[in-house]
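thread: overnight batch results

M.L. [08:02]
morning all. the overnight job finished for the chain we discussed friday. pasting input first so we're all looking at the same thing
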Amino acid sequence: MTSSHILTGRYFMNGDHACAEGAIAAGCRFFGGYPITPSTEIAERLSRRMPQIGGVYIQMEDEMGSLATVLGASAAGARSMTATSGPGFSLMMENIGLAAMMELPCLVVNVQRGSPSTGLPTLPGQADVMQARWGSHGDYGVVAYAPWSPQEFFDLTVHSFNVADRYRVPVLLMADEVVGHMVERVEIPEADQIPYWERKRPSGSKKDFNPFKAIDDDLVPPLAHAGEGYRVHFTGLTHDERGYPDMSADTHQLLVTRLVQKINRNTKDLIRTEAFHLEGARVVVIAFGSTARSARRAVRVARERGMPVGFLRLISIWPFPEQLIRDLAQDVDAFVVAEMNLGQMIHEVERQVDQPVLGVHHAGGVMLAPQPILEAIEKVTKNG
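M.L. [08:03]
and the structure it wrote out:
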């Protein structure tokens, strides 16, 4: 990566374009995708930008093939990504599980729209968040972030690549149509100001290298790239530390437990939140993505009216900040969860607390306004 590849400076751009520029700034040099609203602008921009910087852009016949190419590029050493929306995200689920099993770092961007099925192709939704956690079959750890602005779409794209490489996982960036298409100021820093986390790489004898042996407490094995002379065998089958298929129950238990624990053990590094006015709050509003913008406004108005309310914005939605929610519950009377779906993340809050949890939900197609969130705050404050 050279500094000339990065469009440093201040721009007005939509979130999709900010994501594309974030990928380039992060060192991504491979994009495999298939156009789908409202993420298409990411692919369109990278189709122009990748050839300019010596990268590779390829449009595949479908979303399954798109993610397959991304995994191949990652195995060869490239930072790689794809972008999609709900229907394509569903098609990618098999290969997301494959990426988790083979421990290949990559970025999957989902610019969410109204769903299910074809749904509302050009209108927003936030109903894919549980699919992000549980969409591919089996047990595996998940990392997913939700930006609330074009600037954060840029920043989290960079961060997601770093997390993917650091922990050898596919990272899911769960934007929504509002953030993808809104135009705001985006500041792109100089190259030396952009964080870059290296992949953990093997050392020592190539002959004795076991590509899936975790030698550190973080449970992340070093990653040898195809073609470097190491013995590398990738498979979706249960495999031993050499990468060779092993159909024993004991091997499966060890492998899958490690895939989960390498996320659970590192939650302090993975979880990101932003707090507003939590000190002294008796009611806490929780939201993510574009809905958080409305929630912040509702909290501001409520506080102006004398209500003791704070706001917690989820930047990472997986892993979920369970301990933080439990800590807040020690001093809070009630929670309000606002999301552009009929109730998904609210269940994660309910699992952690005994207090009343009031949901503010809309199936999608329109951004949640501040007013219904404000009314929910007023309701729980009055009941309290």
